Amino acid sequence: xxxxxxxxxxxxxxxxxxxxxxxxxxxxxxxxxxxxxxxxxxxxxxxxxxxxxxxxxxxxxxxxxxxxxxxxxxxxxxxxxxxxxxxxxxxxxxxxxxxxxxxxxxxxxxxxxxxxxxxxxxxxx
Amino acid sequence: xxxxxxxxxxxxxxxxxxxxxxxxxxxxxxxxxxxxxxxxxxxxxxxxxxxxxxxxxxxxxxxxxxxxxxxxxxxxxxxxxxxxxxxxxxxxxxxxxxxxxxxxxxxx
Lengths: 125, 108
Prior knowledge:
The structure holds two protein chains of two kinds. By secondary structure, chain A is mostly beta strands. Chain A contains no helices and eleven strands. In chain A, the strands form two sheets. In chain A, strands 2, 4, 5, 6, 9, 10 and 11 form a seven-stranded mixed beta sheet that branches. In chain A, strands 1-3-8-7 form a four-stranded antiparallel beta sheet, with no helix packed on it. The termini of chain A are far apart. Chain B is mainly β. Chain B has strands at residues 9-12, 18-23, 33-37, 44-47, 61-66, 69-74, 83-90, 97-99, 103-107. In chain B, the strands form two sheets. In chain B, strands 1, 3, 4, 7, 8 and 9 form a six-stranded mixed beta sheet that branches. A three-stranded antiparallel beta sheet of chain B has the order 2-6-5, with no helix packed on it. The interface between A and B is medium-sized, with 28 and 28 residues.
């Protein structure tokens, strides 16, 4: 059974870079037809897609965050990572990683399953 | 930017049918997906490709699509179905993943 687990600091200072890693177990991150995504949820609010990556390194990002986001993959460790720069209090959220079933922009095939348990990142000095 | 619109809340009594709608201009071109999220837990996929149900999801969960609106229907609602429900799709070009604002289902 595929499982995902987020890890990283729970507290980040304003203007610094948030860094998280997602470790995939029970399956290979190099599987075809799957991207790997990051989604966040501010406390008490809704879900926001951050971006996704293919095992080859191909990425696509939410345009509203693109200038601050970098997602990378390490197939040797079965992990993918998120970096979000210049964080503010508005970036405080639970950050989830998930397998992104995606078959191309025109296919309509575009969903997240399964998800990691999520990790709360607070931006505060 | 593209948006999906959901009602903030829906309330039903146990055993009744709950319907949660999601509206968006690109929905005739893009599939919709539905997630259930209980407090303190990660979202769980309950419907994919408008109306398909993943294995392990009870048959009382169903999805439908009509024009710019998709609907999640929960028949014979049970107390355990009380949760937040989110629709998800993409813009017309497929390059931007978007979630609806979420609907809190209350079982009275």
